Amino acid sequence: MPIPNSLARAARNAIETSALLRQAPRPTTTQKAQLRRYEVCTLLKNGDISQTRHIAPALPMFEDAFCAFTRGSLVDTPQGPMAIEDLLPGDDVLTQDGSSETVLWKGSVTLIPGREDTRGRTRPLTRIMADTFGMQKPMSGVITGPAARLLGTPAHMRHLNDGQPMLTPVSEFHDGTSVIETLPPTPVELFHICVARHSVIRVDGLQFETYHPGVNAVRMISHSLRSIYLNLFAHIESLNDFGPLLMPRAGDGEIDALTA
User: Fold this and answer.
1) Where are the domains of the chain?
2) Taking a C-beta distance cutoff of 8 angstroms, is the pair 194, 230 a contact?
3) Torsions phi, psi for 2 (to 5 deg)
4) Cβ(152)–Cβ(165) below 8 Å
5) Rounded mean pLDDT of 176-201?
6) Which residue ranges does the record assign to the Hedgehog/Intein (Hint) domain (predicted)?
7) Tens of pLDDT along 103-112?
8) Global pTM value
9) Residues 206-241: pLDDT tens digits?
């Protein structure tokens, strides 16, 4: 039985990643570029699920595709809440408007948030206490990854986007009491998911975005690294295939972009 083209492509991409890394420009400093192992599940066009493992740079753009939700986070689906680690490509998730979207891609990575990398950077998690944003929002205490974005606008950012809600990094909500930074010294498994169109889904009673690299992604990454990055996503061919952002998204205190 011939191997489906999409499955063959996924396997080939996983192998090509190491070759592309060898071709990527070497850092000019004496520090070695840190690499990380990324686990990927993708829904193929024939309905099969491809599971691949990739070794790729531990750069923010790569890590952000995997570092949104911790193990045990409950995602709303038409059949009820489902733990993020049990969700598979092909399953449906409920979106903000009550419709459902099929998960096309799920990524996971294991890292130690409290351990500094070669650049002295850590990856803090965020603990959100129960009822912080209202009754059952979240339903119980929840811990998110550094790449998670909430639908909401903290007080210090209300001057942006004319005070309208936007997708905001969880770190912007830190208040030292109900939303706090945490740096576990032990390994933590983190996840993210991608659907056909950028969406807002309900996780542990809160509204989070699905993965999207952002409209500035093309300018944030070199051509050689772009090939490595795209190899992580067997369901797309180019960065444009992620489609438009659902709504304005904040980053580093400013609006990344407005939807057309």
Assistant:
1) 33-125+182-231
2) no
3) -65, 145
4) yes
5) 97
6) 67-214
7) 999 999 999 9
8) 0.85
9) 999 999 999 888 788 888 899 999 999 999 999 999
